Batch of 2 targets.
Target 1
Amino acid sequence: MKRAAPILAAACALWIGAADAAEVTVIGTPIDLDFGGAHRTTVGALTYRGGLKLAGNSAAFGGLSALRVSKDGTHVLAITDRAAWFQMDLLYDAAGMLVGVEHGDLTPMLDVDGKALVPPRSDAESLALLRGAALVGFEREHRVLRFALDANGRPTAARPVIEPTPPAVARAPTNQGLEAMTTLADGRVLAISEGYLDDGAMLGWILATGDRPAETVHYVAAPGFNPTDATTLANGDVLVLERRFTIFDRAARIVRLRAADIRDGARLIGEEIARLLPPMQVDNFEGIDAVAAPEGGTRVFVLSDDNFGALQRTLLLQFWMP
């Protein structure tokens, strides 16, 4: 765990690759869970362990739509919906509260032809890590690309390859494709659409691996909510992040799926463990990850996507779950 004395903000310089040669400064400002002050420290089964409002000085920063946190909680790999990799290190105080960021970078993803991804092929929304590879799910032109990772789990400059997906994936509505992905305990990948409805639920798949064919699942979200990301816990259970986000109404909830329930043909209905509602810090939450906590239990991180807009924020919140 990286440690630092409590601070009001931490800045990091971010680079968008040699082709763009643009430096972006991002400030991580600590925030309370509740707009009304530090009196609220829990929500559902979660205990708040610090959060940051991230702000950059360039239009190149923002749109963070999924994240993966290193096992020791010190490094973030995220993707943006303009097809870029965003990486940074996290800083904690002596009590383990999240207080800042440092050592970040922002680098364009390459397409299968070795060129930078551009619209409509650039809407990266979901991320799953495998041994030596990262799978990224895209909307608008629905597909999954497999990117090579180096020995430290960082993206390489190699061209990606197209990952096989069920034909139904390509038929998803334009902006309602593969929004949530996570690598399951058996090494396969669970992928859930944001709003591709079938039989009153969101279509999802357990993607094919080796000689095992793809399987279909249906995910039941709460009324008015849509799944936006997922992460797998140490025991194989899965946390799913759901979001309700309109100009008048903002909320998020985290639900738990039992590992034994995630199988071919399943209708997945999670157990809610936390619901974020105003006056808590609520924005367009699209990323979730979980890693083991040093003191036992699990650290849960949630991330919001500002859609590169002035009326939304990029928030990174840390919670502890027993």
Target 2
Amino acid sequence: MTNLFFNPVKVISGRGCVGSFDWRSLGKKCMVVCGERSARLSGALDDLKTALSAAGIAVAVFDKVEQNPSVETCFAAGAAAREFKADFIAGIGGGSPLDAAKAAAYFAANAHLNVDTLYDGECKSSPLPVVAIPTTAGTGSEVTQYAVLTYHKIQNKKTLKTPSIFPVAALLDAEYTVTLPQSVTNATAVDALCHAIEGYLSKSATPVSDALAEKAIFYMGRGLRSLADGRLDYNLRERLLCGSMLAGMVISVTGTSFVHSFGYPLTYFEGLSHGEANAYFLSDFLFYSARVAEDKVNRIYRLCGVRSNEEFRSLIEGAVPCDRKFDRDAVMKYSRIGGGGSSVNRGLYEPTPDDVYNMYKKYIV
């Protein structure tokens, strides 16, 4: 028996959806989890405060979420929500604040957990409900059961995965992506394309996830071409936001593969954003996957409007230049860490240790 698809998130999209959402149904106290800048610059935080005030809901804001949030930050956010006696949490931002909001909801309801027992401890109480408001078109975190957190103990990221942290609702308003720098728009679009492609070429793919993936690949691949040509209007922003959400639904079924595992060390040690780090390995993922799934890989090329791996690589590097170089010792270290990631062998092609090193060594200075 195959579980074709499960995703309990209510998705609402369009201008003003934050103001029209039924906030009263979730309780009387809301803890907002966000970063210091994007929630405010985008206008989403003001819109949310206005909507909550109109609904008679008390608000507290935790705005200390960093890029690639740590377990420690999420623990602090959860403790703040518990002290405030929040009934629910609203996460605003890109993948970092949304993942942090889900982890905070988990911590808030389980005071017995700490930063060292998050991944091993028992969840005694259901996490607080989470409403996710994305301000980037990239992670799809608004529709997944994952919280990817920086875990300094292992000098890498580690994922909290449980159906209990699926958001109850995702509110998609492309207006909140307008203030993003072009570089962030490009990098997050590449990240969403990674999700769709890695899910499409996953051992866990189903007919439903494949259908969603093909639509997401079309939106994100063609969207990257438009971004490279300087055509970024509101309609494109809506398509990118929808594509990112669809790709999130894909990985909620399949998880990710070695693109993400290989990218994590570049994020942790070199400070590259998540989308930038993934860009270094996405073309290689297709190159190697073609050895066992040529028809699917060729379908990806067609959906993206390219004819070969070389053209696909140009499409990616036109959005996110992969021009960083690293010394040999660092590359050896990153290949060991990346090659040992839990998601490396989820794809249809399982890379050998030599494959892993060959994918990294192109970036030796």
